[in-house]
Amino acid sequence: MFPFLKVKPLVFVFVIVACIWYSDKLFNWTSLTFERYCENAANPSNKELQNPRIFFTNRFGRWNTSKIWAMDTTQKVSYKQPSVLKGRTDIVTVTPWLAPIVWEGTFDPQVIDNIFKNLKLTVATTVFAVGKYVKFLQDFFDTAEKHFMVDFNVHYYVFTDRPADMPLTNLKPGRRLTVIPVPTLDRWQEISARRMAYIRDAIVQNISKEADYVFCLDVDSKFHARFGAEALGDLVAVIHPGYYEKTHRDQFPYERRPDSTAYIPLGQGDFYYGGALFGGLVGNVLNLSTECDVRFQEDAKNKIEAAWQEESHLNRYLFLNKPTKVLSSEYLWQDFKARTKEVKVLRFSGVIKNYGEVRPNL
Ligand SMILES: CC(=O)N[C@H]1[C@@H](OP(=O)(O)OP(=O)(O)OC[C@H]2O[C@@H](n3ccc(=O)[nH]c3=O)[C@H](O)[C@@H]2O)O[C@H](CO)[C@H](O)[C@@H]1O
Ligand SMILES: [Mn+2]
Question: What domains can you pick out in the chain, each with its CATH number?
Fold first, then answer.
């Protein structure tokens, strides 16, 4: 009698767990929302485009934000006391919708690392090297291994038409690289813009199954200093270094023709975001890349190409779907541009390139 009572609850729990596990195997219910979206991705309705969905995969932990801010109490960490009165005053550190703008001096790397490093997050990183752009891979990887998401699991996805010309890269433990073959195209504009479709497909096929966050980066670039977990956020965009000093939004190179689906009218817009870097939770980047590609295709049908290709579509998307974290121009500089006094640390920068030499067309 006594031992039977003790065993019964255990059997009960076991049966429940087995039922959940088996029903998931049968019906795949933990990824149902995600699957349903993918079916419609090729032809989403307007309603679907205007109401972005939250995705679930079968890794529930991703959405548990309370976990994100937990300190790792197994490690002693002493750091400067935070203040609500004293901080940098030469720059703006928050958007009007209360997203942080990340500058040197607005975060403490020690605190950030203590919070994020025990979460065992995986950050997928996409980079395209089509045609002669393969030559940028060596410096990109050498510097990324020194500065980009150090001590995190990083899975690089390299999209290239020249896998044989890829440099041999020594990756640190916890870091992996997958090559995805893509066709050669004869217009740089198209290579740049089609990235959105390849990013979408890679998220559906691979990234969603293994990563928490994804960053999409330009290859003609180098890392120069820490680019770490302070850059992680639900939806992350970067201020284009060419336009943050111009304060009037009417001077931003948004797409201004109403015929394009990337259109932003004069008098509207927040910032001008760079196409060379965006990221966030995998589901959010899936939404972003899907919508930007749908709009790029719609424009193509109407024989119109937005002023700055996918960068224009990205800017429209981010005007309507506000980023939850904005990276300052420290996170996207251009080597030809003289340093400004606000940028105390240069973290990621586009190299000077000979356009005639590397691009298939001018
Ligand atoms: C600093 C910045 O925000 N740069 C953006 C800007 O010009 P960029 O001059 O930075 O564009 P780009 O020539 O670097 O092209 C963008 C990316 O496409 C890939 N690529 C391009 C051409 C090619 O032949 N092979 C190849 O692999 C490569 O990964 C490259 O980094 O505008 C582009 C769209 O018009 C993109 O939005 C870029 O991200
Ligand atoms: Mn570039």
Answer: 1-68 (no CATH), 71-358 (3.90.550.10)
